Every structure is written in structure tokens, then in C-alpha cells.
């Protein structure tokens, strides 16, 4: 008896392309493993024998192999329509079983991975008849009827670990190999494949020209289903500490050989690589630890940005279920990320652009296209409908649609009451500071997400602005606040914002407002409480004694607001798990209050609903183990509604302390909403 093999089943209706996919997969696996391949079509007893064939397969093939024993089975003689010769299948390190019923209910307890292959009915019939010709055609309807009868009582696709939409374009085998790497049951046996994927080579090219990022994004990624633009939209006006945060912009999608995307909801992670999608039941931060945190590439010489390709997107607030908070379902995914195997990074300080790509067969073509796009976007701006300056924008303008009409989750009296309830919790000693939020939402009147973001970035430029598109979900953010940066060398930095004043057009009044914020004891108290919370959050994985506050209650001015900002630095312990270091600080203390866990419980009761993307984090997890994440504030979320329409939502809030004035707190959320709502041509909802 040999050790029990790892068994992978490839199932699907006839003609879906299972056989070719299984043969190609086995060939790839044989680079590192001994592999046996079994086809169920060899064992079905005739054209009416699907159910009997599945039973034969489970008892005479699968059960012995599962126990590490050679399987002896009787084939079917399709010419004589009777049992044929006896065959033997040996239990290799990996066994791939393929055919209709390979993952039937009786088989699944004996399998390590289930792959379901799907294709359109038209493509399936064409493939099957092209393969088997006239011998199959008279039996197509009979066989298809058996398949449907079986699937009516055994929903195999619902039990699949990986689903493959086979377009017969040659991509399915490589996409499936990528997806298999994410299944925990296969992680040990596929260790050689994982090691090979970590031996990545980064190609780079510097272009001494600064492209207009909006034109470049539209050219390279305007038609991409999933794309991310981390946009230092205030690069031309930032000064002081804000200038350092506004040096780089990153533009990427999930195209190319290495492109992937991830959606996480309530403990389930769906990873899509081309036409293959793996579903893994695991906490998000545990999954993140398997794909990020080890240095896989070296940054190019002379390249100062910490992003060296990797994962980009958002972490939603409801991931707090994994960091001590309650489990609150949201309408949007708890996390959406894409893996960029190629990207453009704009260095605004140097006036240059870097093209980055992992070495792959398609890297050369992409570099040539990106090089051309960068130079075109750096040239003179062409007047006309594609102009993206203050006078015009790419695509339909928000002004061409009726302005959205927002409603608030909380009326003014409701919000004032909740402020007082939060203060009562503070009086009773259950919290020191409670960051109470609410949501304003609207039915989408037909806004174009891209054009809406361009309007937002013009109205409210910010160092951590971003535009994210994941299918029907768009996130348009003008965040000024860093949540957490972990540099490749382990340097950690958090920069919480607490304290806000609206700006005035009159310079004298504006300076008075800035001074008022600077001298506000209440705002300083709020800020210092969050600084203490973040010092504690960073200390969990920091070198003892390395946590310092390098800047306390400094004032930074942006287009529509003055903000009070502090900076906390620390050094990550050598070998500490970086994903866990992020989790230890998540969600941002400036969005919860202190102490964090008990305050999150209070907020769940007061807020009457999920925050979703709002209050989470947007940024990247790089292949050189670096990460830079912004707090999701000043952010419009546009997502598909269940009725076929789309919903717009904007979260706003403020820190409540014992000294808070409820009326002032309500005015603060109106101030914070102004930058986004005014760009859309609308106002804060009145009661």
C-alpha cells in the first residue's frame, strides 16, 4: 500500500471540455509530481448508464485509490455494448479523475478538490459532436436528459471548490493551476508549484515624462472590468508632510498572465484567475497571510515607491468580525482586491512614470502598449469630448443627469439622540470616545462612476484619493487619511485624523477657523485618545520601545477642510506576520473610538446598520512585503441594487466625547459630506 493520493475531480456536463482540461492539468502537474489520470467515459455501461457508471466509479476506482490501493476496474466496450477488459489505475501522488459524475455526492467524501467546468449549451454540443461525431449524435438528447436528472438531485456546482467557465481559448489550464494553489487541502502537495511562482522576475522601465493620470487610466483600463487607481490627486498643491504622502499614483488592472481578483464575504473568499474561480472558506486575514508578507521581488534600482506589484483594493469595515467586532452582513463585499502583475506608477515629484511587469509571455506586448499610452498622456491635451480638465470630462458628465436625491439613515433628531446615548455610554465608563457615523444614500439617477470620480477629485484633491472598479461596484474616494503603512523594511506608520473645520473663501475667516481648530482642547483630546489607541495597536507586533509619536495634533489644510493630524511610528518585529499586524490595527481607531472592541459593540447598536466599504481601508499589499492603506472616508460607493438599479452611498461621522455638543456634531457630519455631495450637484438631506 502506498500513501493515499491527493484526488482532484473535474466534473461538468458532456462537451464542457473536461477531458482536454484534465489532460492539460495532468501535464502541468507532472513537472513536479507523479500523476494518474482516469476518465469516467471508460466505465459508463452504455448510453443509458450514467447512474450505474457513477456507482462503478466510486466503488471500483475511487474507494481503492483513496486508500492508496491500486484500482482494478472493468471498462465498457462501446462497439460490443458489453463489459470489456479489466484495467488498473495506480495511486500516484496526485490522481485526476474526469468525467460527468466525477464529483457526484457519493464521490465527494473521497475527494480533495472538486472542479466544475461550465460552458454554454451550444458550445458543449458542438465540442461533443466534433469529438465523437456521428456515434454520439443519436444519443445526445438521451445523455443530456440523464445529466439533467442527476443534477436535479445532486447540485455538484454548489459543492465545487473551483468553477471554470471554459471558453476553449487555451487559457483554462493555466487559470485552473492558479486557482488550485488557493485550496488549503492542496497547499502541501502543491508546494513546488508555489515555490516556482515565488521565483518571480520584475521587469521595469522608467519614462521621463509625467502623464495626465486620468487620460492614462482611461486609455489603459477604461474597458477593464476590474481596475484600481490610487490617486495622489493633490500632488500639485501639497506641501509639508502631505507632500511626502502625495508623491506617487498607481494605476493597474487584473489583466495579463498573473492577473487575479478576490471578493470576500462573511468568511468566504472567492479568487478568480481568468476563467477559473476558487472558493475558500477561511477568515480574510488568514487568507491574506498566505498570499502576502514575504519578499518575492526586488524593487528596481532608482525606484523609490514601495509598491512593486501585488494586491490592490479595499478592506471593508465589516471585517471587524475577525478583529474582535460583531458579524454584521453588508450589501457590498467585505473586501475586493485585484492582483496586478503589471502596473504604471507615476512619480509626481520627479515628473516620471515607471512601467512594472512580472516577466511573462505577454509582458513585452503590454510594456510596448503602456509605453505608448504614457507618452500619449504626457503630450499636449487634445480639446474635444475626451478632454478631462475642469471644462470637460471623459464620458457623460454628472450634470447631464438629474442630481441624486439623498436620504439619511438618521434624521437630525435621531442623530442628536444617538449622540446623547453615546455620551451616556461614556458617562457609564463603557467608552472614552465613540466615533458615531451615519449613511446618506440615493437611487442612482444615471451617474457615470468614472466621470463622477473626476468631478470629486477636482473638487476635493487629496493624498489618498482613489478610484476602484470591481464589476458593478465602483468606489470613488477623496480620503486625506493614512490608516497604516508598513514599509518593506518593516517601518510602520499610522496618521490618524481627528478634528475638522470647514474652510472659508475669505482668507481672514479661513485662518481664524484654522487657529480655532489648532487651539481646540476638545479636538486635541479626541486626537490624543486615538493616538494612544494606535500606539497600543502597533505595539502588538512592534519591536519593544520602537513606538513613538513623531507629530502630535498638527494642522493640515485641504481644499474644503482643515484637519488635525498626528503621526505614530514603530518598527515591525523581524519575522512577525504582516497580515496579522494589519489585522491588529483594523479597523482604524479614528473610525471606532476607544477602547476599540467595546466601542465597536456600542456602535453596532447605535448605528442600526452596516458601514460596508466606509470606515475600512483602501490601498495595496506589495510583492516586496510593503503595504500602504488609507482610511475610507470622503468616499462615494456606487453598487448594484437588487432591483436592477444602482445605489449611491456616503458614510459620514464624528468622534463623540463627554464634552461634545450634539448640534455641533451634526454640523460636523454635514461639513464632512459637503465635498462629495457638492461635486455631485446635490446637498445634505434635510429632515
From TrEMBL:
Its EC number is 2.6.1.85. GO terms for molecular function: 4-amino-4-deoxychorismate synthase activity. Residues 412-672 form the Chorismate-utilising enzyme C-terminal domain. GO terms for cellular component: cytoplasm. Keywords: Transferase. GO terms for biological process: 4-aminobenzoate biosynthetic process; folic acid-containing compound biosynthetic process; L-tryptophan biosynthetic process. Residues 213-353 form the Anthranilate synthase component I N-terminal domain. PANTHER family: AMINOBENZOATE/ANTHRANILATE SYNTHASE, AMINODEOXYCHORISMATE SYNTHASE. NCBIfam families: pabB (TIGR00553). This is aminodeoxychorismate synthase. It comes from Arthrobacter cupressi.
